[in-house]
Amino acid sequence: MTEQTYNQALLELVQAGLAALEQRSANTSAINTTTAESHFLCSWMVQALKERRFAKLVADDLTHWISIARSMGAGAQLPLMFKRINTQYSAVVSSKHLGDALQAMLTELEQNDWLVILDAEVDTKLKLASDGRNSLIISAEQYQGRIKEHKIIKSITLYVRADEQLLAQAAAKHGLLVSQGDKKSSLIKHHKAYRVFPGNKQPALALLLD
Question: Which InterPro entries does UniProt cross-reference here (predicted)?
């Protein structure tokens, strides 16, 4: 039996949540406002967590979303986020040749006047003078050694300085999931560290499109 991946568990969760919302909306007596939907989804998640309805892989996500739903109410926009996750993750389920996809994305970013550096070793703290241009750096060791036969065979770190949504849009266009940005772990000043994984198998929620 194949072990469920985080991506599969996440899709199962959000699709079940969206189905529950749709079923609720079909009830003619239901109040279909953003606040009412958010309250319903929060209660649904609380019950799902209590009953351990979904894999442990997404338990932290459930706990986090319940927390922000309770503190922000409709402002958390959880129904919208569920729809975004469903759209973005469903689109990459069958993505193949991610090595080619990454290279195509890098080529496109260069054509859009990004500064893309792939031939520098990044193994200590560095600083890049990019004159205000969007920039993306991958250590030469990772770029040359972790793409084989059109595939990403080991996680690759992308150091990026740009509007996150530009990166999210470029990645989604080429069928890639990119991790959330991490400024603390970045080795390049003013850049965030993002990661792409073999088979798009991110271990946690990816960077989402707005």
Answer: DUF2913 (IPR021316)
Question: What is the pLDDT at residue 1?
Answer: 52
Q: How many CB atoms lie within 10 A of CB 175?
A: 20
* 190 vs 95: which has the higher pLDDT: 190
Give the closest residue to 112 by CA, choosing from 173, 43, 42.
173
Tally: H helices and E strands in the chain: 7, 6
Give yes or no for residue 34 having a pLDDT over 90: no
- The CA distances from residue 80 to 69, 76, 84, 132, 210, in Å, are 13, 9, 6, 33, 10
Instruction: Name the token pair of 154.
Output: 């080991």
Q: What is the pTM of this model?
A: 0.92
pLDDT band at 28 (very low <50, low <70, confident <90, very high): low
In the chain, where the domains are located: 6-92, 98-200
